[in-house]
Amino acid sequence: MEQTKEYIQTWDLDQIFTGGSQSQSLKETISTLTKEMSQVDESIELFNPAKASANDLAGIINQLGPLQKQLRDVFAYIGCLSAQDVNDSDAAVLVAKSGDLSAKMGAVSTKLNQKLKEINDEAWTEMIQSQELKEIAFSLSEARRKAKEMLPIDQEVLINDLAVDGYHAWNQMYETIVGSMFVTVEEEGESKQYSMGQASNMMSNSDRNVRKKTFDLIQQEWQRNAPLFGQSLNHLAGFRLQVYKHRGWDDVLREPLENNRMQKETLDAMWTAIEQNKEPFVAFLSRKAQLLGVEKLSMYDIGAPLGKSETKVSYTQGANRIIEQFQKFSPQMADFAKMAFDNRWIEAEDRAGKRPGGFCTSFPNKKQTRIFMTYSGTESNIATLAHELGHGFHQHVMNDLPIQNQRYAMNVAETASTFAEMILADAAVRQAASKEEKVALLEDKIRRGITFFMNIHARFLFETNFYEERKNGMVPVERLNELMVNAQKEAYCDALDEYDPMFWASKLHFHKTGTPFYNFPYTFGYLFSLGIYAHALEQGNDFEDEYIALLQDTGRMTVEDLAKKHLNVDLTKPDFWEKAIHLCIEDINEFMQLTE
Length: 596
Fold this sequence. Notes:
Its cofactor is Zn(2+). This protein has 24 helices and 5 strands. The protein is mainly alpha-helical and 596 residues long.
């Protein structure tokens, strides 16, 4: 009976706040939050680092924690409103308001952290070993260490305040422009308008003419707005570089590595292992070109399915498949997914006016999550849905931890999501009904690896080179296109025919101000989850509890310590990374044999 239940494709946000962008309860919450933040600010003002006890600090933390949870709920809710309808002007006003709130909270946290750095080391060590604080010792020590690397308090608060209408506003402008963009495609004699997100879904169409035509239209639309995006990208990068300069930081990777609780040696070991193992992936691209009947693939061919079959999988079928496969690895994961579908935590409807892409956002106060994507029935959509549910599950197992220990970095956030995606991909390959189906599914799985090893490598190379040039002044659009294509050629080892010069404009991640270098953490998460997946296959039934324990530790230690504790591996050495890459190469070998 359960199997026949149809799941609804739109989310229910009323469980969080009622009334959408006109919500009265949201307005009241924002007003209360603002007042309570001022009260915490006063408490911090009175906090004397020279005389403070663990009890005094715990008092402030206990005041601050619930506000941080509530603010996260407000922030996530407004993000959901603006994503579901890019033309909702009231939501745009709320986005600006949430930026102000965030800056206020940033200033409060900065002030507290600056006071923490004034506590002498001996008193500090004693303080964080106390009963009241030892559970959040990692988070507090991290905040104190970062405060020591910052500018004096009044300057950091000023940067925070100016960033609202300076730095972060460039990102908002980018999203507003993208929301108003569309392409007009001729289909069966009539013109159809597609949002940029809907149009990019057409890159998985089996007809090369459709892909090429749509790709060209998409390029034209990005080119039309390139001067605007060139300005916004240059300005947000300029702002970032100025802040770094004043803090005395000379490496643009310093902040992203800090944010990801990761050493430079780990990042280098990962990219080195990838660069030394690209040959099989190049061979795969060459074989795929042969199977599609072209000499060399172009960027718009990478997502093309092999074979004509484009069976659409209904949303409910996709949901049931995800629940069924999660069940085999972790019943708790399956229960979580079922709850998300049952309670309408997912916005998946295929309609115009939604922003492109997918995300999972959390409401720690309500202990809920929401997932956003556009579902059109493809295998790739099911993978995205599983991916976002993986994020949701990660948050779900953290819900009862102190809010300070729920702040896990993006690289480990991408681990749970990629792990969930892998469960689905692997099961699909195993259950393939024919050789053709197996080839198509293996291709889909390998293609995801190519995204992490080549596409994201190109993003990392582009961003590294762009920031280097930006230090000397504005980088014009033509040069941005050139840097983008050069990065793609290097990352794809010259294996493609046509590249995507406008990718710097179309990829939202380059324009995200909250997260600098929004690229390498994905590749880290993918490979780290492959390592965990291999471990899971060895462990069998004992795995679920171990996996949940690992996820729960993601907010309270560095990634190197996490890997050592739970997998007994050293991430600064290439061995772990190579082992994980070889799992992908095994898939390629099987694909090559099947397509000989």
